[in-house]
Design a protein that fits this description.
By secondary structure, this protein is of the alpha+beta class. It has 2 domains: about 230 residues, BirA Bifunctional Protein, domain 2, CATH 3.30.930; about 180 residues, no CATH class. The chain is about 60% helix and about 10% strand. The protein is built from 11 helices and 10 strands. The strands form 2 sheets. Strands 1, 4, 5, 6, 7, 8, 9 and 10 form an 8-stranded mixed sheet that branches. Helix 4 packs across helix 6, helix 7 runs parallel beside helix 10 and helix 8 runs antiparallel to helix 9. The longest helix has about 50 residues. The relative contact order is 0.08.
Length: about 425
């Protein structure tokens, strides 16, 4: 039996509910004794790297003359983006918008342009490759990243953590581009465009679901998987976006919607069956009445005259009401799903929450936009020759007793008033 493939994860992010991510977690610049998820006895096995000082172990990182990750990131922003900050400040002052001026600290606190953090992990708890294999793979990946994208993508620091549940690496990088003033400016999408990274859907407008970062992450994932296989690992190549928890949450929401729709369909089927049973009873009684009043054949003439117009108008009204009710129930289901996703009790990351909300909003908007088309299609089917003729026949069968009763009453009144009947110019009897 072949060994199970290991899953390779590469997750990105810049900020969470408490703001932009702080690298002090990565270089352990806090009291790890108070962290329940960290095994303090293994912390000395961690490894650290930054763009200024290279690689070192935990003991050297803590006791040697090394700056913190916060400090090396601030130094990078000062050196590389200092001209941009100064130039933008001068332009803002000249334009009378000095309030827009920003410092290095402002850039580092901006979730759009602060360092992006990526977590690399291979396998799961109890089924991970040795730490030295993970380290060798990620180092090779970083070297390849530098060779391919180093002109616009810069890794600032990374840390190998062996003191948590599973070995993993936190790496932080920034994207930048030379702007029209000749200054180097942190800007992700423009940097990827300069690297000729295409949109996932070039023919569509760029947006949250169609940007170069999606393609870039896909390229990086493929590169990482290839390196893993070159190191002899058997890895799962199919990605799970949003993580298992997110996938289960999305499946729950979708399943809840399906169950609601199924319940509505079941209830509709019950009502239809009940109506058909009642109709059969009524039709049997009316058949007996039709046989007794067959001589009043003028009833068919009246029915032929009004059924076509009545059916045509009824189709429009009933179709509108039915589709409106269906749309309303569906929108309620979607709204409930949206509230569930937005609830503080729903443990979803903001990115995952945005993805689900975006999908639900698109479903809602699509249903709203298609309401008119659905109505036209339904009306078209109901007004088509087969459906119309069958419905008209049924209407005539169900309405005949009432019409005959009205005509019978009219005949009796005219029989009692011969003078009035004379002036009508015709007789109901044949």
């Amino acid at each position: 039996m072949a060994a199970a493939k290991q899953r390779v994860s590469r997750h990105n992010g810049r900020a969470g509910k408490h703001g932009v991510y702080n690298p002090k977690h990565n270089d352990r610049q806090f009291d790890v004794a108070h962290a329940e998820n960290i095994n303090q006895a293994r912390t000395n096995q961690n490894m650290y790297w930054d763009w200024q000082n290279g690689l070192r172990d935990h003991e050297a990182n803590q006791s040697g003359p090394y700056p913190t990750f916060n400090q090396v990131e601030r130094a990078f922003y000062e050196q590389r983006y200092g001209d941009f900050i100064a130039g933008q400040t001068a332009r803002n002052v000249k334009a009378g918008h000095a309030k827009r001026n920003r410092t290095v600290d402002d850039l580092l606190a901006d979730a759009r342009i602060c360092p992006e953090e990526t977590i690399y992990q291979i396998g799961k708890e109890g089924d991970c490759p040795p730490p030295e294999v993970l380290l060798a793979i990620v180092q090779e990946f970083m070297d390849e990243m530098q060779e391919r994208f180093g002109s616009h993508v810069h890794v600032l620091d990374w840390a190998l953590h062996l003191d948590e549940t599973s070995p993993h690496i936190h790496a932080r990088q920034v994207f930048d581009i030379e702007n029209r003033y000749g200054e180097i400016e942190p800007k992700q999408e423009k940097a990827l465009e300069a690297l000729e990274i295409p949109l996932p859907f070039p023919e569509k407008k760029p947006g949250r679901q169609n940007n170069r970062k999606i393609t870039f992450d896909s390229i990086c994932r493929e590169l990482l998987l290839n390196i893993c296989e070159e190191h002899g690992l058997s890895v799962e190549r199919e990605a799970i976006y949003g993580g298992q928890a997110s996938r289960e949450k999305n499946d729950y929401i979708i399943q809840a919607q399906r169950e609601k729709i199924a319940e509505l369909e079941r209830r509709n089927a019950e009502l239809t069956a009940d109506n058909e049973a009642q109709s059969r009873i009524i039709e049997q009684a009316r058949a007996e009445l039709d046989e007794k009043l067959e001589k009043l054949s003028d009833a068919d003439t009246v029915l032929d005259a009004v059924t076509d117009v009545a059916y045509r108008e009824a189709v429009q009204v009933v179709a509108i009401d039915a589709i409106h009710a269906t749309q309303e129930e569906t929108q309620k289901v979607l709204a409930k799903g949206m509230r569930l996703v937005q609830s503080p009790e729903t443990k979803l990351r903001q990115k995952e929450r945005d993805l689900v909300m975006d999908w639900l909003e698109k479903v809602s908007n699509t249903l709203k936009k298609r309401a008119k088309t659905i109505l036209e299609n339904v009306v078209g089917i109901l007004r088509g020759q087969p459906a119309r003729e069958a419905a008209k026949q049924r209407i005539k069968e169900q309405a005949r007793p009432s019409v005959i009763s009205i005509l019978e009453g009219f005949r009796q009144r005219t029989d009692q008033n011969p003078h009035q009947n004379k002036h009508r110019g015709h007789s109901l009897e044949r």
